[in-house]
TrEMBL record:
GO terms for molecular function: endonuclease activity; nucleic acid binding; RNA-directed DNA polymerase activity; zinc ion binding. Signal peptide: none annotated. Residues 62-95 form the HNH domain. Residues 76-95 are annotated as: Disordered. It comes from the Bacteria. Keywords: Nucleotidyltransferase, RNA-directed DNA polymerase, Transferase. Transmembrane segments: none annotated. Residues 86-95 have a biased composition (Gly residues). InterPro entries: HNH, HNH_nuc. This is Reverse transcriptase.
Amino acid sequence: VTGSQLKRMTWTPIVRHTVIVYNYTPFNKDLKEYFEKRDVKDFDRNNVAYRQKLAKRQKYSCPMCGHSISDFSEELETHHKTPRVQGGGDEYTNL
């Protein structure tokens, strides 16, 4: 025995996906609200509590450019209101 193990199936968590309603497409502008709500649910499921709380406070949009942060097209970054080098901390009120 070398200390290596085969990966067990029980170690892999089951992650359910959200099914899109039949005949709905993200390219249909009339369904924009449907897909925004769906993205918010996915965002909440895939992020830790403080990021969820921060996203809700920002109405799920970037405060700089206004784009949706729940589409997962880019890695999320959490910035500080008062930079840490200027004495700002990591507490929620400074994010």
